[in-house]
Amino acid sequence: MTPQTETLRFQAEVKELLGLMIHSLYSHREIFLRELVSNASDALDKLRFEALTKPELQAGDERLAIRLEVDASTRTVSIRDNGIGMGHDDLVHNLGTIASSGTRKFLESLRARGATQTSGLPNLIGQFGVGFYSSFMVAAEVVVETRRAGEPHGWRWTSKGDGEFTLEQVDGLERGTKVSLLLKPQGDEDQDFAEPAELAALVRRYSDFVAYPIEMAAAHFKERGDLVKSTAPDGLEVARLNSMQPLWARPKEEINEREYADFYRHVTHEYSDPLETLHFKTEGSNEYTALLFLPSERPFDLFDPSTKKSHVSLCVRRVFVMGECEELVPSWLRFVRGVVDSSDLPLNVSREILQKNRAMGQIKKHVTKKVLAALASLAENRRADFLRFSTGFGAVLKEGVVGEAEEREALAPLLVFATTHADGPTTLPEYVSRMKPDQKAIYVLSGEDREQLARSPQLEAALAKGLEVLLFVEPIDEWVLDRVKEFQGKPLVSLDRGEPDFVDDAKKRELQDLEREHRGLCEALEQKLGGSVSRVRFGARLTESPAVLVDEPHAIGRQMARFLKETGREVPERKRALELNPEHPVVRKLIELHRDDPSSPRVTEFTELLHGQALLAEGSPLSDPSRFSKLVGKLMLGAAH
Ligand code: ADP
Question: Does ligand 1 come within 6 angstroms of the Cβ of 82?
């Protein structure tokens, strides 16, 4: 008796979907395998779950696995599972329509039965029914042979994806489903899905952590010593293509350091150990598990503007969906590596959908909070490791302070700066804890070179008073200064601008008196220096040097000026005041010379020399080095007489 064949039409939306997919997803053709493997894994989950109450469903064929087969001569690839399988109506509904996804129905029926415990539900991959149809991107014809667990008959579903499919009853099938794809002729694409090695690579890339073995005849992989090989229940020698280790899905208590480190190396392709591992799970309406790492080594391309702004992958129910997912972490956490596995997102989620998805926004916020908390704990409990981390990634973290106002408060205590304090780099909380009882501000000096800055005359009075000064030497530090105006109620005050606030009132009065008394001298100096300084005044910032150049309180900083210049933008003219140290013998001598003969050429020479010295001391170039050198020579000769 010839079995009867039915011919049915696809639901209109399916036809539409097929057309859309073939045209818009063509460059992602390879995802067909991921989709079919996910369906297979899903079917195995369902069987496992149903067999909990009906063990006979699994009896006789206990070992759950996914088998890939490829026949290069006919260009046929098949994906087989011994999962739940499909009956006649399942096939019509599941593979003929999109409105009713079997998975969704399955979930609904479970809920109706009162299985409210989420932990009791199997992990169902792909609640949104487009996955299977992606096979038509690579196949000219798709044949599905399937037998539903517990049913006597099986079915063969066939379609060329052209609007209709046929169904016929077939006997003698094993439990589960076999999807066979008759591949389209190979065009000029490099990727050939009839190549076992290509399929193996795709499994590794997209489905590595599927919880069931994904196997293929070992004969295809004679050379591969790295694959686990065994004899399957049907007697075939098979090689396992996936590691089957969704590490993040296992309970934390059961995972040891080495396993975490192995996984870290697997995802990062690095040789080092992670500095810190974060493994956490959220429950409730937006359920996800995250396995994230703080790396110990700084990658060479951390500041390369073309590198990805995220190194966290998105999985949905253990299936890899997207690498380098920027919707999961802000770019200033781009050093974080790992996986976020959502239980709620659709498997076929696109980037556009992710960007608008509210759940994603919540995940990002929560992940950010978790990473910051881990860093805070590192800072508190493992100072050496924290400093090592900061050396590698601190500057990236500072981008967060500069860019994102929301996280500024949580981030500020985690920033590390060079300091004049003997213990080396410091955080703001550490600085504050060392502040003197009457100290009003956090003092900061910015420049390009740490050593040079540490010797800067700008620091003299502060150091003489025993005050600690932060040395802002990273290019981004000055931006930080621009954004973080205060910390724990203490303002951040730049020592190279305005009048330092640690000068006491008596000293201030003394300076004002001097200023009045010698206004003539100051004006003469201003005139002699032409337009190169805004003004000349006496100040209390110096103890050892005769003169220093000081910014006006609201002037833009040096780094900022350099940045504007480098990016081709207009730099506002930066005129600084020349501050004289009235106690310095050279300054006293100048006062004397001017008093005796204001028109003496030595007053001019002294003025130029003082200005040049101030420039040299801060590491700035002289406008006329040869003139300066001549003046020094003349001075030496004068001293020798
Ligand atoms: P999705 O998996 O996202 O629901 P698909 O179009 O990939 O959408 O599959 C539609 C339905 O077909 C699935 O929900 C499932 O019920 C059924 N199905 C697909 N593949 C299999 C399989 N290998 N075994 C059992 N059922 C399957």
Answer: no
